[in-house]
Amino acid sequence: MASAAGRPGPAQRPTPAVVELWKHYLCCSDVPVPRISVIFSLEELKDVEKDCAIYVGRMERVARHSSVSKEEKAVVDYFFVELNLGAHFEALRHFLLMEDGEFAQSLSDLLFEKLGAGQTPGELLSPLVLNSVLSKALQYSLHGDSPHAANLSFALKFLPETFAPNAPDVLSCLELRYKVSSAPWRGRWGSPRDAAVLSPPPWQVDWPLNIVVTEGCLSRYGGIFSFLLQLKLMMWTLKDLQLFKHEMQHFVKVTQGYIANQILHVSWCEFQAKLASVGDLEEIQRAHAEYLHKAVFRGLLTEKAAPVMNVIHSVFSLVLKFRSQLISQPWGPAGGPRGPEHPNFALMQQSYSAFKYYSHFLFKVVSKLVNRGYQPHLEDFLLRINFNNYYQDA
């Protein structure tokens, strides 16, 4: 380009629009670059090359992310659609977390009636009896006809010599197990599995479901089931008592309601919300592990909550002791205006006084934990047990 005097003038500097046009052709187009009567300096060409490299790198990352996202979505769909993972979560909730009330009530009543009848461990914990109890409980269950109900079976952790009297965890030797499988397990309905009941195998989880539902997860489910069974034993113990039973029954019902609300509803709803937004298999695994962690934590089944759980177990032991004192001797004939009297009435009064002491002590401990900001979920427990300010006014 020439100046007005006819001499060669300085090179025309490229405008920003021209630079962007060059970037487009250099980075994204296979069309021949048109001749443009501009001259780039070496520094400007290096800047254009650098910008193109950054642009191409971004495009490659977007392409890789799009490909990975599709693969991860395919894996998530495979677990929930092909392997029916959601149905396994629901089955574990129905049976091991006792969300199915008819199943839980029938199962516990059948076990405790045989226990109360004085059956020995060898009689009650035999494969024939346990399989019969489970089959009858599933007949009453709202979900007994589901294909995953066939994955349930009883197993013994150990065979006690005798059942300890007045022990809340008298059936801690017994486990209800669930086989996580892509197909129903028909062993319980087919040939007898006596050896499996007496010598239980480890938790059985088929691959690849064991990536999400690990043996450790199923062990936590078993721990929650064991504690829920203790609560059922307390309710069964108190249902036929007349003296002092209302306060004891209130305490046990409150504890049972708190556990059911925090595990079956609050933790489950949070878990379902997390599952609705998962993007890959690792997120499913984390969501399930977090769900179980919250269930165990809110159920006071962690090591840090052991002091609180020890107080609850002491209360449970007193409830069982109270019933033993009641049924150990018959009521005496009416000897005065107060009507029939019980020979163990004084002992029952002592047990009731000890129950009141421990229940009030538990209320104070939980109140301090809540006031200090520890375990805020215990506010639900305080609201339930002290709804009419009974413990606060005492």
TrEMBL record:
Keywords: Cytoplasm, Cytoskeleton, Microtubule. The keyword Cytoplasm applies. InterPro entries: GCP, GCP_C, GCP_C_sf. One of its GO terms (biological process) is spindle assembly. It comes from the Eukaryota. Residues 85-182, 204-391 form the Gamma tubulin complex component C-terminal domain. Its main location: cytoplasm. It holds the Pfam family GCP_C_terminal. The keyword Ubl conjugation does not apply. GO terms for molecular function: gamma-tubulin binding; microtubule minus-end binding. It is found in: Cytoplasm, Cytoskeleton, Microtubule organizing center, Centrosome. GO terms for cellular component: centrosome; gamma-tubulin complex; microtubule; spindle pole. Signal peptide: none annotated. PANTHER family: GAMMA TUBULIN COMPLEX PROTEIN, GAMMA-TUBULIN COMPLEX COMPONENT 6. Belongs to the TUBGCP family. Component of the gamma-tubulin ring complex (gTuRC) which mediates microtubule nucleation. This is Gamma-tubulin complex component. It comes from Cervus elaphus hippelaphus.
